[in-house]
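Table S2 (continued). Query chain:
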Amino acid sequence: MNPRNNHRLILFPHPFQGHMNSMFQLGQILYARGFSITIVHTNFNVPDPSSHPHFAFRSIADGIDQSEASTLGTRGLIALLDVRCAVPFEECLREMVSSQGGDAAPIACLIADSLFSFTCSVAQRLKVHALVLRTGGAVYLYVATIFPVLKEKGYIPVLGPLATDPYPPVLRQCTRLEGSVWCFISNANVTI
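Corresponding output:
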């Protein structure tokens, strides 16, 4: 293991398990490279600090209880977490920035989950370098680039009688990944 390099990284994963696992794996790699790791997490789906004793943990209030979360669905929960975590996250990061010096290692960078839309603007206001981690597969980048082309050509949104077809003709030959992400488009007559 490398000696500590006197730089701290702040990791802010979204509280969904796949997002936390990816962020913690990245944290393990960066810790092995000598960085001190601080995990900022919501109170919804709290990680177990004993599983990562070499990380520091800071929680922020999100105001979401399990019963509320169970009625929202995934999209609603993502939107609510984005709204309710913005101010507590900014307060937490501001406190960490102001406590730099002395025994605290300087903050080298914030690495935040891409599902939180506010993190880069908060980091910019507080003059903290920031990166955004997209925890989905590399195929997301392909989908993100082709999506505007499909919209421009009128393939999406699907209107009329095909709107109720779960697999419109342009996507009929697609493969699904993780149950929700279209990852391959064939027979679509789309030029990129």
